[in-house]
Write a structure and sequence with these properties.
- This protein has 450 residues and is mainly α.
- The chain has a single domain, classed as Hydantoin permease (Orthogonal Bundle), CATH 1.10.4160.10.
- The chain is built from 18 helices and no strands.
- It has helices at 10-21, 24-36, 40-68, 74-79, 87-118, 130-142, 146-162, 165-193, 199-206, 215-228, 235-240, 249-277, 286-299, 303-336, 341-361, 376-404, 406-413, 423-449.
- The radius of gyration is 21 Å and the shape is globular.
- The model has no long low-confidence stretch (mean pLDDT 91).
Length: 450
Protein backbone atom coordinates (compact mmCIF):
# COMPACT_ATOMS: atom_id res chain seq x y z
CA UNK A 1 0.00 0.00 0.00
CA UNK A 2 1.36 3.40 -0.98
CA UNK A 3 1.61 6.57 1.07
CA UNK A 4 -1.70 7.75 2.52
CA UNK A 5 -3.48 10.59 0.81
CA UNK A 6 -3.93 13.88 2.70
CA UNK A 7 -5.91 17.08 2.40
CA UNK A 8 -3.69 19.65 0.72
CA UNK A 9 -4.27 22.40 3.30
CA UNK A 10 -6.50 23.66 6.12
CA UNK A 11 -9.13 25.06 3.75
CA UNK A 12 -9.42 21.74 1.93
CA UNK A 13 -9.93 19.87 5.19
CA UNK A 14 -12.40 22.49 6.44
CA UNK A 15 -14.70 22.51 3.41
CA UNK A 16 -14.68 18.70 3.31
CA UNK A 17 -15.63 18.48 7.00
CA UNK A 18 -18.34 21.16 6.64
CA UNK A 19 -19.64 19.31 3.59
CA UNK A 20 -19.81 16.12 5.63
CA UNK A 21 -21.77 17.86 8.39
CA UNK A 22 -24.12 19.89 6.19
CA UNK A 23 -26.79 17.50 4.97
CA UNK A 24 -30.49 17.09 4.36
CA UNK A 25 -31.27 17.51 8.06
CA UNK A 26 -30.00 21.10 7.94
CA UNK A 27 -32.48 21.96 5.21
CA UNK A 28 -35.73 20.77 6.77
CA UNK A 29 -35.30 19.34 10.28
CA UNK A 30 -33.41 22.24 11.89
CA UNK A 31 -35.88 24.99 10.83
CA UNK A 32 -38.80 22.84 11.97
CA UNK A 33 -37.22 22.16 15.39
CA UNK A 34 -36.40 25.85 15.86
CA UNK A 35 -40.00 26.91 15.35
CA UNK A 36 -41.47 24.10 17.41
CA UNK A 37 -39.16 24.64 20.39
CA UNK A 38 -39.20 28.35 21.09
CA UNK A 39 -37.57 30.05 18.11
CA UNK A 40 -34.51 32.04 19.14
CA UNK A 41 -34.55 30.34 22.55
CA UNK A 42 -33.92 26.99 20.83
CA UNK A 43 -31.13 28.49 18.70
CA UNK A 44 -29.39 29.82 21.83
CA UNK A 45 -29.66 26.43 23.55
CA UNK A 46 -28.49 24.68 20.37
CA UNK A 47 -25.41 26.91 20.00
CA UNK A 48 -24.48 26.43 23.68
CA UNK A 49 -24.75 22.64 23.33
CA UNK A 50 -22.69 22.69 20.13
CA UNK A 51 -19.89 24.69 21.76
CA UNK A 52 -19.87 23.05 25.18
CA UNK A 53 -20.67 19.40 24.33
CA UNK A 54 -20.38 18.70 20.59
CA UNK A 55 -17.12 20.54 19.92
CA UNK A 56 -15.28 18.48 22.57
CA UNK A 57 -16.79 15.32 21.04
CA UNK A 58 -15.54 16.37 17.64
CA UNK A 59 -12.09 16.97 19.11
CA UNK A 60 -12.09 13.35 20.33
CA UNK A 61 -12.60 12.10 16.79
CA UNK A 62 -10.04 14.56 15.43
CA UNK A 63 -7.41 13.50 17.96
CA UNK A 64 -7.92 9.76 17.41
CA UNK A 65 -8.05 10.13 13.62
CA UNK A 66 -5.03 12.33 13.12
CA UNK A 67 -2.90 10.77 15.88
CA UNK A 68 -3.36 7.30 14.39
CA UNK A 69 -3.30 8.30 10.72
CA UNK A 70 -5.46 5.27 10.11
CA UNK A 71 -9.00 4.12 9.34
CA UNK A 72 -11.56 3.91 12.14
CA UNK A 73 -10.69 0.28 12.96
CA UNK A 74 -6.93 0.49 12.63
CA UNK A 75 -6.84 3.68 14.71
CA UNK A 76 -7.55 1.82 17.93
CA UNK A 77 -5.18 -1.01 17.05
CA UNK A 78 -2.41 1.62 16.85
CA UNK A 79 -3.42 3.68 19.88
CA UNK A 80 -4.42 0.77 22.13
CA UNK A 81 -2.66 -2.35 20.80
CA UNK A 82 -3.82 -5.68 22.16
CA UNK A 83 -7.11 -4.24 23.46
CA UNK A 84 -10.72 -4.52 22.34
CA UNK A 85 -11.21 -0.79 21.81
CA UNK A 86 -11.38 -1.37 18.04
CA UNK A 87 -15.05 -2.28 18.63
CA UNK A 88 -15.54 1.50 18.25
CA UNK A 89 -14.20 1.22 14.71
CA UNK A 90 -16.56 -1.65 13.90
CA UNK A 91 -19.52 0.40 15.15
CA UNK A 92 -18.35 3.38 13.06
CA UNK A 93 -18.17 1.27 9.87
CA UNK A 94 -21.61 -0.19 10.61
CA UNK A 95 -22.96 3.33 11.22
CA UNK A 96 -21.61 4.66 7.94
CA UNK A 97 -22.89 1.70 5.91
CA UNK A 98 -26.38 1.65 7.45
CA UNK A 99 -26.77 5.45 7.23
CA UNK A 100 -25.70 5.55 3.59
CA UNK A 101 -28.01 2.62 2.77
CA UNK A 102 -31.12 4.70 3.48
CA UNK A 103 -29.50 8.11 2.90
CA UNK A 104 -28.74 7.10 -0.69
CA UNK A 105 -32.47 6.52 -1.21
CA UNK A 106 -33.29 10.06 -0.06
CA UNK A 107 -30.33 11.29 -2.11
CA UNK A 108 -31.97 9.63 -5.11
CA UNK A 109 -35.17 11.52 -4.35
CA UNK A 110 -33.24 14.82 -4.36
CA UNK A 111 -31.65 13.92 -7.71
CA UNK A 112 -35.06 13.05 -9.17
CA UNK A 113 -36.53 16.36 -8.03
CA UNK A 114 -33.50 18.25 -9.35
CA UNK A 115 -34.09 16.66 -12.76
CA UNK A 116 -37.79 17.55 -12.53
CA UNK A 117 -36.98 21.17 -11.60
CA UNK A 118 -34.53 21.48 -14.51
CA UNK A 119 -37.36 20.38 -16.81
CA UNK A 120 -39.72 22.94 -15.20
CA UNK A 121 -41.84 19.95 -14.16
CA UNK A 122 -43.46 21.58 -11.14
CA UNK A 123 -45.36 24.11 -13.25
CA UNK A 124 -46.96 21.26 -15.18
CA UNK A 125 -48.90 20.36 -12.03
CA UNK A 126 -52.11 22.21 -11.22
CA UNK A 127 -51.18 25.34 -9.32
CA UNK A 128 -52.32 25.42 -5.72
CA UNK A 129 -53.16 21.72 -5.73
CA UNK A 130 -51.15 20.47 -2.76
CA UNK A 131 -52.81 17.05 -2.98
CA UNK A 132 -51.42 16.65 -6.49
CA UNK A 133 -47.84 17.16 -5.29
CA UNK A 134 -48.44 14.80 -2.39
CA UNK A 135 -49.71 12.19 -4.83
CA UNK A 136 -46.72 12.66 -7.13
CA UNK A 137 -44.29 12.16 -4.24
CA UNK A 138 -46.14 9.10 -2.92
CA UNK A 139 -46.37 7.52 -6.37
CA UNK A 140 -42.67 8.12 -6.94
CA UNK A 141 -41.31 6.71 -3.64
CA UNK A 142 -43.58 3.65 -3.77
CA UNK A 143 -42.66 2.83 -7.37
CA UNK A 144 -40.64 -0.41 -7.66
CA UNK A 145 -38.34 0.92 -10.41
CA UNK A 146 -37.90 4.70 -10.60
CA UNK A 147 -36.46 5.32 -7.09
CA UNK A 148 -34.05 2.41 -7.60
CA UNK A 149 -32.67 4.01 -10.75
CA UNK A 150 -32.14 7.33 -9.00
CA UNK A 151 -30.58 5.60 -5.98
CA UNK A 152 -28.21 3.85 -8.41
CA UNK A 153 -27.37 7.18 -10.07
CA UNK A 154 -26.80 8.89 -6.71
CA UNK A 155 -24.50 6.11 -5.50
CA UNK A 156 -22.65 6.10 -8.83
CA UNK A 157 -21.91 9.82 -8.46
CA UNK A 158 -20.79 9.26 -4.86
CA UNK A 159 -18.51 6.38 -5.87
CA UNK A 160 -17.11 8.39 -8.79
CA UNK A 161 -15.95 11.13 -6.40
CA UNK A 162 -14.53 8.74 -3.79
CA UNK A 163 -12.62 6.65 -6.34
CA UNK A 164 -10.36 9.64 -7.08
CA UNK A 165 -9.19 9.71 -3.48
CA UNK A 166 -9.00 12.36 -0.80
CA UNK A 167 -7.14 15.17 -2.58
CA UNK A 168 -8.32 14.82 -6.19
CA UNK A 169 -11.81 13.53 -5.35
CA UNK A 170 -13.27 14.51 -1.98
CA UNK A 171 -11.36 17.74 -1.42
CA UNK A 172 -11.67 19.04 -4.98
CA UNK A 173 -15.41 18.30 -5.11
CA UNK A 174 -16.04 19.95 -1.73
CA UNK A 175 -14.05 23.05 -2.74
CA UNK A 176 -16.40 23.88 -5.60
CA UNK A 177 -19.68 22.49 -4.23
CA UNK A 178 -19.63 24.26 -0.86
CA UNK A 179 -19.11 27.83 -2.19
CA UNK A 180 -21.87 27.27 -4.78
CA UNK A 181 -24.20 26.07 -2.02
CA UNK A 182 -23.38 29.11 0.11
CA UNK A 183 -23.96 31.63 -2.70
CA UNK A 184 -27.23 29.99 -3.72
CA UNK A 185 -28.62 29.72 -0.18
CA UNK A 186 -27.80 33.38 0.50
CA UNK A 187 -29.50 34.28 -2.79
CA UNK A 188 -32.66 32.41 -1.77
CA UNK A 189 -32.59 34.10 1.66
CA UNK A 190 -32.50 37.53 0.00
CA UNK A 191 -35.31 36.51 -2.34
CA UNK A 192 -37.39 35.13 0.59
CA UNK A 193 -37.13 38.47 2.36
CA UNK A 194 -39.00 40.13 -0.53
CA UNK A 195 -42.07 37.85 -0.32
CA UNK A 196 -45.27 39.30 1.16
CA UNK A 197 -45.81 38.07 4.70
CA UNK A 198 -42.28 36.71 4.96
CA UNK A 199 -41.78 38.47 8.30
CA UNK A 200 -43.95 35.77 9.92
CA UNK A 201 -41.36 33.19 8.89
CA UNK A 202 -38.54 35.16 10.49
CA UNK A 203 -40.60 35.57 13.67
CA UNK A 204 -41.15 31.81 13.66
CA UNK A 205 -37.39 31.31 13.57
CA UNK A 206 -36.06 34.11 15.75
CA UNK A 207 -38.71 35.35 18.17
CA UNK A 208 -37.93 33.79 21.56
CA UNK A 209 -40.82 31.88 23.07
CA UNK A 210 -39.69 30.57 26.43
CA UNK A 211 -43.09 29.04 27.14
CA UNK A 212 -42.06 26.21 24.79
CA UNK A 213 -38.68 25.68 26.45
CA UNK A 214 -38.34 22.67 28.70
CA UNK A 215 -36.36 19.48 29.11
CA UNK A 216 -37.68 18.21 25.77
CA UNK A 217 -36.30 21.36 24.11
CA UNK A 218 -32.84 20.62 25.48
CA UNK A 219 -33.06 17.01 24.33
CA UNK A 220 -34.21 18.10 20.86
CA UNK A 221 -31.30 20.54 20.57
CA UNK A 222 -28.90 17.91 21.89
CA UNK A 223 -30.02 15.27 19.42
CA UNK A 224 -29.99 17.65 16.45
CA UNK A 225 -26.52 18.97 17.30
CA UNK A 226 -25.08 15.49 17.86
CA UNK A 227 -26.37 14.01 14.62
CA UNK A 228 -26.05 17.13 12.46
CA UNK A 229 -22.30 17.06 13.06
CA UNK A 230 -22.12 13.31 12.27
CA UNK A 231 -20.60 12.52 15.65
CA UNK A 232 -20.08 8.79 16.09
CA UNK A 233 -20.44 7.89 12.40
CA UNK A 234 -16.70 7.66 11.74
CA UNK A 235 -16.65 10.38 9.08
CA UNK A 236 -14.84 12.98 11.20
CA UNK A 237 -12.33 10.42 12.46
CA UNK A 238 -11.64 9.24 8.90
CA UNK A 239 -11.28 12.76 7.51
CA UNK A 240 -9.08 13.74 10.48
CA UNK A 241 -6.65 10.96 9.55
CA UNK A 242 -6.04 12.85 6.28
CA UNK A 243 -5.23 16.18 8.00
CA UNK A 244 -1.55 17.08 8.03
CA UNK A 245 0.32 17.09 11.34
CA UNK A 246 1.12 20.80 11.15
CA UNK A 247 -2.53 21.93 10.92
CA UNK A 248 -4.41 23.35 13.91
CA UNK A 249 -7.24 20.84 14.45
CA UNK A 250 -8.92 23.04 17.09
CA UNK A 251 -9.42 25.79 14.52
CA UNK A 252 -10.60 23.30 11.88
CA UNK A 253 -13.07 21.78 14.35
CA UNK A 254 -14.39 25.18 15.42
CA UNK A 255 -14.72 26.21 11.76
CA UNK A 256 -16.66 23.04 11.00
CA UNK A 257 -19.08 23.63 13.88
CA UNK A 258 -19.52 27.28 12.86
CA UNK A 259 -20.06 26.44 9.18
CA UNK A 260 -22.64 23.74 9.94
CA UNK A 261 -24.58 25.99 12.33
CA UNK A 262 -24.54 29.02 10.01
CA UNK A 263 -25.75 26.90 7.09
CA UNK A 264 -28.60 25.48 9.18
CA UNK A 265 -29.73 28.98 10.17
CA UNK A 266 -29.45 30.21 6.57
CA UNK A 267 -31.54 27.24 5.43
CA UNK A 268 -34.23 28.25 7.90
CA UNK A 269 -34.11 31.84 6.63
CA UNK A 270 -34.44 30.59 3.05
CA UNK A 271 -37.32 28.17 3.60
CA UNK A 272 -39.57 29.41 6.40
CA UNK A 273 -40.40 32.91 5.06
CA UNK A 274 -41.62 31.30 1.81
CA UNK A 275 -43.59 28.68 3.73
CA UNK A 276 -45.34 31.34 5.82
CA UNK A 277 -45.81 33.66 2.87
CA UNK A 278 -47.92 30.98 1.19
CA UNK A 279 -49.79 30.06 4.35
CA UNK A 280 -48.75 26.43 4.75
CA UNK A 281 -47.66 24.53 7.86
CA UNK A 282 -43.91 24.25 8.42
CA UNK A 283 -44.26 21.05 10.48
CA UNK A 284 -44.01 18.71 7.52
CA UNK A 285 -40.76 16.76 7.96
CA UNK A 286 -39.53 15.36 4.60
CA UNK A 287 -42.87 16.42 3.10
CA UNK A 288 -41.77 20.04 3.48
CA UNK A 289 -39.03 19.50 0.89
CA UNK A 290 -40.75 17.13 -1.53
CA UNK A 291 -44.41 18.20 -1.30
CA UNK A 292 -44.89 21.67 0.20
CA UNK A 293 -41.96 23.52 -1.40
CA UNK A 294 -42.59 22.21 -4.96
CA UNK A 295 -46.18 23.43 -4.59
CA UNK A 296 -44.92 26.85 -3.50
CA UNK A 297 -42.41 26.97 -6.37
CA UNK A 298 -45.24 26.26 -8.84
CA UNK A 299 -47.24 29.21 -7.57
CA UNK A 300 -44.66 31.96 -7.19
CA UNK A 301 -42.96 34.40 -9.54
CA UNK A 302 -39.56 33.06 -10.66
CA UNK A 303 -40.53 29.81 -8.96
CA UNK A 304 -38.84 27.66 -11.60
CA UNK A 305 -35.46 29.35 -11.07
CA UNK A 306 -35.74 29.19 -7.28
CA UNK A 307 -36.71 25.50 -7.52
CA UNK A 308 -33.59 24.73 -9.57
CA UNK A 309 -31.37 26.59 -7.10
CA UNK A 310 -32.97 24.90 -4.11
CA UNK A 311 -32.68 21.36 -5.44
CA UNK A 312 -29.08 21.96 -6.52
CA UNK A 313 -28.35 22.95 -2.90
CA UNK A 314 -30.24 19.90 -1.63
CA UNK A 315 -28.41 17.55 -4.01
CA UNK A 316 -24.98 19.02 -3.22
CA UNK A 317 -25.70 18.73 0.52
CA UNK A 318 -26.63 15.08 0.05
CA UNK A 319 -23.55 14.31 -2.08
CA UNK A 320 -20.98 15.98 0.21
CA UNK A 321 -22.39 13.98 3.14
CA UNK A 322 -22.58 10.71 1.20
CA UNK A 323 -18.96 10.85 0.02
CA UNK A 324 -17.79 11.23 3.63
CA UNK A 325 -19.91 8.24 4.64
CA UNK A 326 -18.59 6.07 1.80
CA UNK A 327 -14.99 6.97 2.62
CA UNK A 328 -15.35 5.27 6.04
CA UNK A 329 -15.78 1.67 4.72
CA UNK A 330 -13.49 2.40 1.75
CA UNK A 331 -10.60 3.43 4.03
CA UNK A 332 -11.29 0.36 6.18
CA UNK A 333 -11.15 -2.00 3.18
CA UNK A 334 -7.99 -0.37 1.78
CA UNK A 335 -6.01 -0.56 5.02
CA UNK A 336 -7.42 -3.64 6.76
CA UNK A 337 -8.19 -5.85 3.75
CA UNK A 338 -5.35 -4.45 1.60
CA UNK A 339 -7.60 -3.65 -1.35
CA UNK A 340 -6.83 -1.09 -4.01
CA UNK A 341 -9.02 2.01 -3.81
CA UNK A 342 -10.97 1.12 -6.96
CA UNK A 343 -11.76 -2.34 -5.59
CA UNK A 344 -12.69 -0.95 -2.16
CA UNK A 345 -15.05 1.59 -3.75
CA UNK A 346 -16.64 -1.10 -5.91
CA UNK A 347 -17.21 -3.43 -2.94
CA UNK A 348 -18.67 -0.58 -0.87
CA UNK A 349 -20.79 0.61 -3.78
CA UNK A 350 -22.32 -2.82 -4.47
CA UNK A 351 -22.95 -3.59 -0.79
CA UNK A 352 -24.52 -0.24 0.05
CA UNK A 353 -26.53 -0.15 -3.18
CA UNK A 354 -27.99 -3.59 -2.44
CA UNK A 355 -29.07 -2.45 1.03
CA UNK A 356 -30.31 0.85 -0.42
CA UNK A 357 -32.52 -0.97 -2.91
CA UNK A 358 -34.10 -2.94 -0.07
CA UNK A 359 -34.67 0.33 1.86
CA UNK A 360 -36.25 1.91 -1.21
CA UNK A 361 -38.54 -1.05 -1.86
CA UNK A 362 -39.65 -0.94 1.78
CA UNK A 363 -41.48 2.28 0.85
CA UNK A 364 -43.61 0.25 -1.61
CA UNK A 365 -43.63 -3.43 -2.51
CA UNK A 366 -41.79 -4.44 0.69
CA UNK A 367 -43.85 -2.11 2.85
CA UNK A 368 -45.41 -5.07 4.65
CA UNK A 369 -42.03 -6.32 5.88
CA UNK A 370 -41.47 -5.10 9.44
CA UNK A 371 -38.51 -5.42 11.79
CA UNK A 372 -39.56 -4.80 15.39
CA UNK A 373 -42.59 -2.96 14.04
CA UNK A 374 -40.57 -0.69 11.74
CA UNK A 375 -40.16 -0.64 7.98
CA UNK A 376 -36.70 -1.64 6.72
CA UNK A 377 -35.97 2.02 5.91
CA UNK A 378 -36.97 3.18 9.40
CA UNK A 379 -35.16 0.28 11.06
CA UNK A 380 -31.88 1.21 9.37
CA UNK A 381 -32.43 4.82 10.44
CA UNK A 382 -33.13 3.76 14.03
CA UNK A 383 -30.17 1.37 14.30
CA UNK A 384 -27.63 3.83 12.91
CA UNK A 385 -28.74 6.90 14.87
CA UNK A 386 -29.84 5.34 18.14
CA UNK A 387 -27.56 2.31 18.49
CA UNK A 388 -24.37 2.35 16.41
CA UNK A 389 -23.61 6.10 16.49
CA UNK A 390 -24.63 6.65 20.10
CA UNK A 391 -22.83 3.66 21.60
CA UNK A 392 -19.80 4.35 19.39
CA UNK A 393 -19.73 7.98 20.51
CA UNK A 394 -20.05 6.96 24.17
CA UNK A 395 -17.18 4.47 23.92
CA UNK A 396 -15.06 7.05 22.06
CA UNK A 397 -15.24 9.72 24.79
CA UNK A 398 -14.51 7.06 27.41
CA UNK A 399 -11.51 5.94 25.37
CA UNK A 400 -10.09 9.46 24.98
CA UNK A 401 -10.92 10.54 28.53
CA UNK A 402 -9.89 7.45 30.43
CA UNK A 403 -7.61 5.39 28.17
CA UNK A 404 -5.73 7.76 25.85
CA UNK A 405 -5.43 10.37 28.59
CA UNK A 406 -4.97 14.09 28.97
CA UNK A 407 -1.28 14.22 28.06
CA UNK A 408 -1.84 12.51 24.68
CA UNK A 409 -4.95 14.64 24.03
CA UNK A 410 -3.09 17.91 24.63
CA UNK A 411 -0.03 16.68 22.74
CA UNK A 412 -2.13 16.12 19.61
CA UNK A 413 -4.14 19.32 20.03
CA UNK A 414 -0.95 21.40 20.31
CA UNK A 415 0.91 19.55 17.53
CA UNK A 416 3.47 18.18 19.95
CA UNK A 417 3.71 21.43 21.92
CA UNK A 418 4.39 23.62 18.87
CA UNK A 419 1.07 25.47 19.26
CA UNK A 420 0.85 27.67 22.35
CA UNK A 421 -1.95 29.42 24.17
CA UNK A 422 -5.49 28.45 25.22
CA UNK A 423 -4.17 25.84 27.65
CA UNK A 424 -7.14 26.50 29.94
CA UNK A 425 -9.51 25.84 27.03
CA UNK A 426 -8.00 22.42 26.37
CA UNK A 427 -8.29 21.63 30.09
CA UNK A 428 -11.97 22.58 29.94
CA UNK A 429 -12.60 20.47 26.83
CA UNK A 430 -10.87 17.48 28.38
CA UNK A 431 -12.97 17.83 31.53
CA UNK A 432 -16.09 17.74 29.33
CA UNK A 433 -14.77 14.70 27.46
CA UNK A 434 -13.90 12.78 30.62
CA UNK A 435 -16.89 13.55 32.81
CA UNK A 436 -19.78 15.44 31.15
CA UNK A 437 -19.85 13.91 27.66
CA UNK A 438 -20.37 10.29 28.76
CA UNK A 439 -23.36 11.32 30.86
CA UNK A 440 -24.86 13.43 28.05
CA UNK A 441 -24.50 10.69 25.44
CA UNK A 442 -25.99 8.15 27.86
CA UNK A 443 -29.01 10.46 28.25
CA UNK A 444 -29.38 10.68 24.45
CA UNK A 445 -29.14 6.89 24.17
CA UNK A 446 -31.79 6.06 26.74
CA UNK A 447 -34.07 8.91 25.69
CA UNK A 448 -34.05 7.73 22.07
CA UNK A 449 -34.76 4.15 23.14
CA UNK A 450 -37.71 5.32 25.23
Amino acid sequence: MGERDNFSNRFGALVALIGSAVGLGNLWRFPYLVGRNGGAAFIIIYICIVLVICLPLMLCEMVVGRRSKSNVFGAFRKLAPGSHWNIIGILAVLSAVTILSFYSVVGGWTLAYLVKSLGFGFHAVAKGDGAAFSGIFKDFVTSPVQPLLYTLAFMAITGFVVIFGVNRGIEKTSKWMMPIMLVMIVGIVIWSMTLPGSSAGFRYLFKPDFSHVGWNTVLAALGQAFFSLSLGAGTIMTYASYIRKDENILRISAGTVLGDTVFAILAGCAIMPAVFSYGVSPAQGPGLVFVVLPNIFANMPMGSIIAIMFFIILFFAAITSSISLMEVPVAFLIEECHMKRKTAVLVSFVSILALGCVCSLSQGVLGGVKIFGKSIFDFFDFMSANIFMTIGGLLLVIFVGWKLGKAAFKDEMTNGGRLHGANWLLDFFFFIIKFAAPAVIAVIFFTNLI
